[in-house]
Structures are given as structure tokens and as C-alpha cells.
Amino acid sequence: MASSILATSAIARRLAPLRAATRSSLSRTFSSSSSSYSANSDRAKGSTAGPDRLSLRPSTALTIAIASLLGGYFLGSSHSERWDEMNKNRELPRGEPSGCCSCDDDDDDDDGGGLGATTTTTAAAAAAAGEEAPRFAKARAELVSKLVKIVGRDHVFDGTTEGGGGRSSRFLTGARLGRGRALCIVQPGTVREAVRCLQEIVDAGCVVLPQGSNTGLTGGSVPRNDTPDTRPAVVLSMKRLDAHFPIDDGNRVVCLAGCGISTLASSIKSWFPNRESHSILGSTFLNPTTAAGVALGSGGTYVRKGPARTDRALYCRVSRNKWGENVVTVVNTLGVRGLEDSDFQDHSGEDAVGRLDAYATDVRQGFRRAMGESSTSIHGRAQSSDSNYADAVCRSTKRVSRYNADTTGEDCNRSEGKVVILATVHDTFPVPERNRVFWISFPDLETTLAFRREVCLNNPKDLPISCEYLDRDSVDIIDRSGRISAHLIRYLGMGDIMGFLWDIKVRISTLPFSWAPLLSDKLLYMFNDWVPEAIPKKFMTAGKQWDHHCLVSVGEFGDGTLDRFVGRMNEFVKKRNEKVDVGGKIVSVVEAESPSEIDALNAFRFVAALAFKTYCVGEDIQGISLDYALPLNGGLVPPLPTSAATPVKRMRYSHFGCNVVHEDVAYPLGVDTHKEKMLLKRVVEEQGGKLPAEQ
Fold it and tell me: From start to end residue, where is composition biased (Low complexity) (predicted)?
């Protein structure tokens, strides 16, 4: 390990002159890119302005590429020899653009063909699986050929070899953790194909693993082969089912299970410029699916919108009849006129699945059809978003705002693979007429919590668009390890290019080399200080001088919301600052004055988890990541017990409005991180918190 650190230091010293020259070049580039906004003194109209484009001279780009290759070679050589030693008693955080829970999914499944879970943890389950294996042997041997007949040979992949960077690795390796083998991977191209594939899989006694974009944070979206359950798993990848179309004059949208949230956001923006989809920030460049947000829990950036939920869906449930056969039942609560079960006569050969497929095919091929509308049935009147969330989050009670195990509503909500979602209906939301973004810094956490109660959550009508919290450790770690990622998101946007770069990073980490999992983060850490700070100086100065910060976005929706919020904020700041003694710290408010500054602040916040992993790898330490919901009337930092190890860094950032906290804790090598994780989990639960609180 020592030689690894020395090798990294030696490379950095040798490349110091190159670093200075490149940083100067990059600084000029970023300065010229930002200058186009300096003449515009108007306040930002919104956070979706077109991103600046980063342009590098060919010589500079070539220099960085060569330096990266050299750095990778030397780092790889040094790490390869001591890989076992380095990873002894080491746990790395599973860094992604939205830090989340490190607890594994604990799904239930049925013997002989279950949904969702790929494993059970009891000897009884293993014995039952072993007894039933001969019964399903022939069906399993024929399963692959049956699936090929349904979807075509090009959409069935061998899953018996894990890793290696091959065609199947993206289905078998989790974005954060988890890796395993499967009997096969199948990608249905229609809803009907998905139902038929599901029936064949459960008839063969295999475990079904529904998968969207495989961006899950807990490893539940990939097979796990490290438990006594010996039943083979089949990955049912839904990504080809990506069609989506509006209904109700654009107030709602129907999404097949593979529709990505980034794809949906772009479509809604182009179809209805005054409307927007649920998820337009955060990890959108990973393009997780809308169905995954419903099944596993979405992020909580949007205080006004709440988490992704819907009671309007088309999904499959598996049950057993009296003869012990697995029966797939399609449940239809879409509530769309022409797609209700009552719209079809018995034995007519038509059903909602076939008609939805026909509509989706027309959409993909560019044919125009009359826009659909909700029916007047109970399903058509059901919720397609968490419309009660604004009222609930403003109540200062002992309850938490949201958590993963909250299965309120239709079975598709937080189902975690226990049912297979085929399609969902979601609300769209009005785009604010204008918005303002503030970086607010506080002298202590108590004042920060008072701001949340008295200003942000004062009443359900005046909620901000978002309210994100960062502590001092978060600011320091993002600045030390997240500059490159933040600049990439800021200048390239959260679209396909960033998704492509993320895929490259994941593929590198799965290559069959001992040092591959660390390479990308080592390079990101090494070259971090070559580029300028990720946010303008006025924000970074506040970030370094205060310990608690809120990034607040407030919108005007035609009813005076913005002015009322700003009035409450100004009154709060005035009263607090009048009580401060001479020399004491006041509440500081710094406003973003251009779309460029808004983009920079959003990027800074949403690379937090990624930066933490890069920090741990760069510092040769280890870390854990958890997310938990604290009671709405709480929010203080859960105290670590006296028996706990002393962390190197304790990084806390949260969706402040709903009090859902992401906590990344760094420890020296050798610390039992599982023990520390359980200690922290116990403290959170003793304070009335629940975890996990996100996907």
C-alpha cells in the first residue's frame, strides 16, 4: 500500500509543470465559457438553460490523455502486486450521483419460481430448491430456446459468466455493488412478450429478476450467487419497452416499464414547454426507469412533487393454483379510456395488453394518434402522483415523510420486484414562470432547522421547488474530489453524453484486472486540482466559512409563491442577524444571478456521493454510505455511541424539506465498517428514523 501511495505521489511530482500549464489553459477556457453570461444581469429564469460547452485545445486534450494513460499504468502496476493486502478489511462506498443506502434488498420469493429476489437465506429454502430441481430440470434446459422463440435470438444473452466487460456484464454487474450469474438475460420488445417470458420463466422454476437501467444502489437489480438458494435466476430486462405518450392534454403521461426519466423529461419539454415530468435533476443522466422509481423508491429532491408514486399501472402478479402451477395474472389499473378491462368483450381475442402494444408501436414508428384520456372509472380517478405529500411534509410530527418500506397504495408501489411492472401513468407538473436560487449559510444546525420549519415548510402552498442541505465536510470533499465530475455535468448537461461516460467508468471497473475498480477514481482524485473550483468564488467562500448550507430553489407559479417565500426568508434572516453579538456569525444569503451559476450549484450538489467514493480511493481509506429518514420534527445529527470508531470524515447531505439524509462516513483501513454501520443504524432507529429511505 505504501508503494501505491508513493507511486501516485511520484507521478504527481513529475507532472507538476504539466499540471500548472494545463490548469492555466483550463482556467482560460472556463473563464471564456462563463464570460458570455457576465453581461446578463437579469436573474435566472430557470434552471434548465442550455449548458455551456467545454472546449479544449487538441494539444491540451492529448496531454491529459497521455498523462491519464501513464498514471493508469503506474497505478495499475503498483496496485496489482498488493491488491489482496489493500482490500483486506476495506469497504468502499458505492459512489453514484445520489448517495444512498448500503443495505441489501430483502425480497420475498416463492419456491419454484419467485419474483424479485434471487436469493433466500435459510437452509430450508435451499433444501426445498434442491428437492424441486429434478422437477424443473427439463423446463430449465428448454427455457432459453423458448425465450428465443418469443423475443428473437438477438435479445437473449448468456448469463452464466459474470464480469469481464462482455455483452452480458452490464446486466450482471450492479452500478454500485453486486455481481452474479444468471441462466440468461432476456429483453422483451413488447408488453405481450414480457408477459409470455414471465410465464415461461416461472414455469421453469427460476427466479425472475426484473431490471430497468440497472442503476440501483443496493445490488438488488443483479443476481447474487453467494447464498444457499441454488435456483437459477433469469434477468428480465425491460429497457426495450421504452415507449411513452401523453394523455389528458399533457397533464399525464403513460410510460412503458423501460422508459427512462431523462428520456421522458426531454419528451415532455418538447411536447409541452409549460409542463415538466417528475424527475429533471439528480441522477437523470443515468436514465433510470420510471417503473424503478415506483417499485424501489425515487429521490426526494422535489419538495412540491414528492417521491414517485402512482396507483395507475399495468403489472403482473404470480400466484399458485391448487395444482401447484405458477399462474401469471395481469392486473390493470391504468384507468385510460380504451385500455380498461371493461372495454373488451370476453373471448374476443383483444385485451389491454394487445391494444397498449399497438399504441406503443405507432408511437415508436412516428404515427400520430388522437391523444388518450383518463376514464371515469375508479382507476381513472386514482392518484398518479403523491398529491397529498405537500400537506404531509409540512406537519411537524414524529412520523417520517417517506421510506422504502412504505407500500401505501396499489401493489406496484415499493414492490421491489414482487410484481413485474409493465406500464404506469404519471402526472406532469407546471413549469415555474420564473425562479430564484439561493445559497444560504448558517452558523449552526439549530438555526438551519429553524429555517426549514419557519420558511421552507411554512405552508403547503408556498413550498420551494427544492431545498438541499450540505454540511462542511460535504463541501470540502466535493471540492477536493468532485470538481471534474461537476464540471462535466455543468458543461455537458445531464443527457446522453454523461450517461455514456458513466457507462465507460462502470465498464472499466468490471475489467478483469485487479486494479480496475480503483483506476477511474484514482485518476479523478489525482487530476482534481488541475481544474478550477466547481462553483463561483462567492459560493465557495461561504462554503468554507460556514458549516451548514442550504441550496434553495424557489419558483413562481402565478399565485405569488415566490414573493411570499422571499419575504419570509428576509424576515427570518433579519431577526436572526439582529440577535448576533459583535464578531458572531450571521446567516448569509448569496443568490445565483445567471443560469450558468444555477447549473454549477446543481452539479456541485449532485456529485456528492460520487466525490465521496473518489475521496476514499484517493486517500486510501474506506467508507460506508447510508440513507435514512428522520422524523419531520427532528433533524439533529444522530450521535455516534462511545463504542464507535472515530471517523475520518462524516459527510451529511440531505433532501432537507423531507428530512431524508444521505450520510457517507470515512474510516481508516482496518475498521470493521459493518459494525459501524449497524451502530449508526441502531442510533437512527432509536431517534425514530427509518432506513433505507431511498432506492
Answer: 29-41
pLDDT tens-digit profile of 643-652? Answer: 999 999 999 9
pTM equals: 0.79
pLDDT classification of 123: cutoffs 50, 70, 90: very low
Nearest-angstrom CA–CA distance, 155 and 315: 22
pLDDT number for residue 360: 92
Answer whether 243's CB lies under 8 Å from 223's CB.
no
Whole-angstrom distance, CA of residue 443 vs CA of residue 195: 56
Q: Characterize 433-471 residue by residue with b for buried, 16 or more Cβ atoms within 10 angstroms of its Cβ, and e for exposed.
A: eebbbbbbbbbebeebbebbeebbbbeeebbbbbbbbbb
Residue 467, φ and ψ in degrees, nearest 5 = -145, 105
| Residue 675, all three cell numbers | 459494525
Average pLDDT of the segment spanning 356-381 = 91
CA 446 vs CA 371, 394, 684: distances in Å = 51, 18, 18
Residue 116: name the closest of 454, 562, 342, 419 by CA. Answer: 419
Compute the distance between CA of residue 471 and CA of residue 454 in angstroms, rounded to an integer: 20
pLDDT over 50 (residue 79): no
Q: What are phi and psi of 181, to 5 degrees?
A: -115, 155
Q: pLDDT for 318-334, tens place per residue?
A: 998 888 888 999 999 99
In terms of C-beta distances under 8 Å and separation of at least 24 residues, what long-range contacts does 35-40 make, across chains too?
Answer: 37/594, 37/595, 37/596, 37/597, 40/594
What's the mean pLDDT in 481-485?
A: 95
The x, y and z cell numbers of residue 232, run together, are 437459477
What angle (nearest 5°) sits at the alpha carbon of residue 429, between those of residues 426 and 432? 165
Grid coordinates given for 91: 469497504
Which residue is listed with cell 491519464? 68
> How many C-beta neighbours within 10 Å does residue 493 have?
20
